[in-house]
Amino acid sequence: MSSFPHSYLDRTKSHLLRSTLINNEKSRNSTELQRGMPTFIIFKNTEIVESIKGADPRKLQAVVKKLSAEADSDGANGFGETSSSGSTSWTAASLPKGYSDVTDQVDVRGLDLLNSASECGTARTLFENSKPSSLDSGKGKGKASSNGEQDEKDWVESDTDEQLMLYVPFMSTLKVHTLHITSLPPKDDDEPPMRPKTIQIYSNRAHVLGFDEAEDLPATQAITLNSRDWDEKTGTAKVELRFVKFQNITSLVVFIVDGEGDGEKVRIDRMRIVGETGEKRDQGKLEKVGEHE
């Protein structure tokens, strides 16, 4: 005769029954996974967001692009911090689905900027990772310098007139989808600089163009911006390019032809490049590719 009470035996039997059911369920799940092997399960915040059975490269690539775009968009609304390389980078506008911020592919050593005011920033300023200081001040003016006497101007302004000519070489061959241009002129100045209005873009040039030279050459694309194109909070315009014309891009020349208004100068605070990254370039060679080959 058993020395254990009936209640203890009943609980033991119940526990054994539940364990058997759970083990059977795990066995069935394991069998299902084995039938579809290999199985790729993607988690986000400990939750399963995608499950792919079988080795299908196209499906895997589509899922990775989708999740990458969602991750970039999550961080790009408002003052997000995201970049394709994983480094911290300020962005002012959402990214188109399937594309990423490829500004980190700008070869800052080869940047060139014509007709820029010496008291303001340089071409490198346009591609800094930091948020423009004017957004923090809310007045379109820079942050106080270390000596407290004047503002540090982390933006670019034209000098003798409203035109700017910017040469942007890349370290990789890119497919360029969009340019994000941020311009934050102060509202309380008597003669504030203008935001860009007419922009001409030239692809795959070996060096910066002169102003007269650019006017004699057909642009790869010409864009005209108006006041509705500029986001009120971030001062950013999304310049969408004709994607078919901007494949295999090794450099861009951005010609600011004029500004919106009657002022004499144009201001740009930041510029971001959005698209896809291709093969790394041999920095020891100057090459022209695409339509100028």
Radius of gyration: 28 Å
Query: Biggest sheet, in brief?
Result: 8 strands, antiparallel
Shape: globular
Task: Report the uncertain regions.
Answer: 73-87, 286-293
What's the number of helices?
Answer: 4
SSE series: HEEHEEEEHEEEEEHEEEEE
Strand content: 25-35%
Report on the architecture of this protein.
There is one protein chain. By secondary structure, this protein is of the alpha+beta class. It has a single domain, classed as Jelly Rolls. It is built from four helices and 16 strands. Strands 5, 6, 10, 11, 12, 13, 14 and 16 form an eight-stranded antiparallel beta sheet that branches. It is globular and about 70 Å long.
List keywords for this structure.
single chain; 293 residues; alpha+beta; Jelly Rolls; 8-stranded antiparallel sheet; two-stranded antiparallel sheet; 4 helices; globular; disordered C terminus
Give a quick summary of the entry.
This protein is α+β, with helices and mostly antiparallel strands and 293 residues long.
Summarize the helices and strands and which ones pair or pack.
Layout (H helix, E strand, L loop, with lengths): L5 H30 L3 E6 L2 E7 L3 H20 L3 E2 L8 E2 L8 E2 L10 E3 L18 H5 L5 E2 L6 E2 L3 E2 L6 E19 L13 E8 L7 H6 L4 E4 L11 E5 L8 E11 L7 E2 L1 E11 L13
Pfam family, one: PITH
Keywords: Disulfide bond
GO cellular component, one term: cytoplasm
